[in-house]
Amino acid sequence: MEFARLADRADAIEAESADLETVALVADLLAEAGEGLPVVARFLQGQVFPAHDSTKLDVGPALVHETIARAAGHNVTADDVEDRLADVGEIGAVAASYEFGGQTGLGAFTRGGDDALTVGEVDEELRALAAAEGTGSEDTKRDALFGLFNRCSPSEAKLLARLVLGEMRIGVGGGTVRDAVAEAFDVPLESVERALQVSNDYGLVAVRARDDGEAGLNAIDLQLGRPVQAMLAQAGTATEALEAFGEVVVETKYDGARVQVHHGDETRVFSRNMEEVTEALPEIVEFVDARLDAPTILDGEVVAVDDAGDPLPFQEVLTRFRRKHDVERMRESVAVELRAFDCLHADGEDLLDASLSERHDRLRDLLDEGVSTLAVADDADAIAAHEERALEAGHEGIMLKNPESAYTPGRRGKNWLKRKPDVETLDCVVVGAEWGEGRRAELFGTFRIAVTDGDGYATVGKVATGVTDDQLAELTERLEPYVRTSSGQDVTFVPEVVFEVGYEEIQSSTTYGSGYALRFPRFVAVREDASPEDADSLNRVRRLADR
Question: C-alpha distances in angstroms, 330 versus 275, 339, 526?
């Protein structure tokens, strides 16, 4: 499929406001995509790689602005592009406003005729760009992007710019593509959803649906080395759990970082957002290798512990997760251990559809230590006693689970409830900031935070408390590469970093786009293990506000 065709159809999809019609348009596009089907299924969502693949383009707004300026001509600068972005507010529209194709130099091409870009070529170029590393890699990325932009029509340039920065803005998310695959290839929606849960690859699922139908989708199983999204919990009370489940499984909620461990010919460890962290956690690999002798996929938490084996705060774990160098030195400084609490696959058998009780029994059979303890309770007093013991041991709290529940990747359902005794928190995406004043003039001082709202983000407030000067310096360094626009004291960010934010209550507000405001918000931590898609939703904010 020609890239121009995809760009034109993306424009039509963006212009459609009705959900059903959008699904129909996407379904028609998938049906005609031909060999480009797996790429189109991902590109529509702003993804170059499958969700299970942690490879990133590692291209920031500044590099895109510079490349657009270079392709637009000698009289255009990156500052001109940024000024235009400040006016129109969206990088796709900025890219579409220039005429490309007349520049020469390394990576330049001539548009027209048989030289039309295909989605396969764009995919290949972007994958090569992502693979560039080391000295000169930024020049390699710049030349590759310049070559692509120089071959683009305005509509293609709009799509390319949005794709590279992961800002599609056409109203197509995973649910839309899921429904469109079912419609385009006349397969059951349930089969598509299950295949996506176990593969995290919309391209693979689309091709299987087209080529092999329902049987092909049902044949997709968990695969060692291909992580799936973690099953998620939502906030709840002991009363809610007892009313819903009858008997409740009570489990310690560890103050650690979620991991998924895949053991086969080799052991690989993945974070909650499916990024590989194997090299940073050698003792976890050693622990698993010494105990498992069959293919296994485990779900659990990595916790930091002191010399006595007692848990340390979550921030200590993060010093290990972000470590790419001096791992052995950090290993001596901060010890970590695995606390496995679920088993997704054991010795050739997928266990997603098995009950929690059965999965935990299999987990106990596999590991002789490092496994969470499950307790069954049928009244609130028993649950409170378990919570008190967990807190006294230095843990974060407890989880309340349905003993009959299946494992549903990526779902934040009512079968797992998390109960925290302290202040309520939300996971919010940082979408903007204001520079500080006085001694903090060179640092971001106030952060604008938002929750997910469909394909976008809705602001719920600003947070400036709970952050030390040292933390502000770290956060400023962390966020500066994601600056999208800057005007006076105010900046906006590409949504990338997630804050855990505590608050006292949620109030109705006309100040913020969500219609709500967090009262007395305070910074708790950066959610290193969460991506923007994992942040809390506006629907959850509404539910919390109505309680």
Answer: 20, 20, 20
Helix residue spans in 47-153 (DSSP H): 61-72, 78-88, 91-96, 119-131, 137-149
- Show the CA angle centred on residue 479, arms to residues 54 and 43, nearest 5°: 40
Identity of the amino acid at 93: A
Per-residue pLDDT of the chain (547 residues; tens, 9 = 90+): 999 999 999 999 999 989 999 999 999 999 999 999 999 999 999 999 998 998 999 999 999 999 999 999 889 999 999 999 999 989 999 999 999 975 544 444 434 445 789 999 999 999 999 999 989 999 999 999 999 999 999 999 999 999 999 989 899 999 999 999 999 999 999 999 999 999 999 999 999 999 999 999 999 999 999 999 999 998 888 888 999 999 999 999 999 999 999 999 999 999 998 999 999 999 999 999 999 999 999 999 999 999 988 999 888 888 887 677 788 888 888 999 999 999 999 999 999 999 999 999 999 999 989 999 899 999 888 998 898 898 888 888 899 999 999 999 988 888 999 885 546 789 999 999 999 888 788 999 999 999 999 879 999 999 988 888 889 999 999 999 999 999 989 999 999 999 999 887 899 999 999 999 998 788 989 998 889 989 999 999 998 888 6
| Residue 42 and residue 49 in contact, taking contact as beta carbons nearer than 8 Å | yes
Q: Supply angle C-alpha 92, 429, 444, rounded to 5.
A: 90
Active-site residue flag, 253: yes
Tell me the longest C-alpha to C-alpha distance in the chain.
75
Indicate the fold that domain 425-546 takes in CATH: OB fold (Dihydrolipoamide Acetyltransferase, E2P) (2.40.50)
- 3-state SS assignment for residue 73: coil
493 has which bridge partners? 483
Do domains 47-165 and 425-546 share one topology? The answer is: no
User: How is the chain split into domains, by residue range?
Assistant: 47-165, 232-419, 425-546
Q: Could you please state the CATH topology (level 3) that the domain comprising 47-165 is classified under.
A: DNA ligase i, domain 1 (1.10.3260)
- Catalytic residue (choose from 141, 158, 253, 462): 253
Distance CA 119, CA 133 (A): 24
- Which CATH topology does 232-419 take? D-amino Acid Aminotransferase; Chain A, domain 1 (3.30.470)
